[in-house]
Design brief:
Rossmann fold, Helicase, Ruva Protein, domain 3, six-stranded mixed beta sheet, 317 residues, single chain, alpha/beta, 3 domains, two-stranded antiparallel ribbon, globular, Arc Repressor Mutant, subunit A, disordered N terminus
Amino acid sequence: MRIGGLMESVNVELFGNDPKVKNTISMARNVAVTKASVLIIGEPGTGKKTLGYYIHLNSSRGKNPFVVVDCVGERKEVENAILGFREENGKFHRGALEAANGGTVLFSNIDGLEDDFQKRLHKIIMELEDYDLDVRILATTSKNLSKLVGAGRFYRGLYTYISNDALFIPPLRERITDLEWITKKLIEEFRENQEVPMQVEPMAMEKILGHYWTYNLAELRSVIENSVKNSNQIILSEKDLEMGEKKAVNLIKDEDNIGIRLMSLKDAEKLLIKKALIHTSENRTQAAKILGVSIRTLRNKINEYRSRGSAFFLNLR
């Protein structure tokens, strides 16, 4: 759980100039002034949490708490982050819903919630006024939740509540013009010697435009930052670019790594597999590549977790 802002401000310029993106930003600005819940849909790394923070900043709640809860994690940790928990010594830690009173809670990867907790969370959200809590709810997902509802894999009541307004951020590969423009903007951002602009070698730009950006803007930002810092030239060449699946793996957040170190090895393995499947929209071949295992190994692990009754793995396609 993170309390407070993701950043000092939000530079919506970096979302790009594609008409579909501009329409999404415009809709976000319009819905920000309302109290409605918002569902933000997009592939991993497209900037869903950033857009959520933009909505928060442009609302009447902008100076109040903005709390992010990642719903992909061990069940108890996620529930504690949302509802709070009491230590054995009696000390109580507030959950996101209480900590964000007067502000906004963003449920990141809301599809990662366990089935029965989805129903419980919906009931709690509907009763917030009874607890004198005033919280706006935002949520993000990379899944088609309406299909999950139809398949009985996501609670209809919660989906209906969070999808009052739905915003979609298209992936970078569908916005080639934006991809080139954003690349140049990021080079400007990470270039230390601003007096000498860095150019991009045509072959390097061709490689960037032809790459399948699995993690979209998050991956592009990481690649450009490292490439610019590792180059001593004023021209970014093809050999300067560090791209590929291994690079994508490094995008796991620092707080995720900390959580993993505090888990048992078996729990950490299960969590990593769950995250990989969620971030690849349950594409097992892609998830296996990211995890560095064979598809057979991944299949065996999924079957193992199913046999133990894990709800997420039982509901996989």
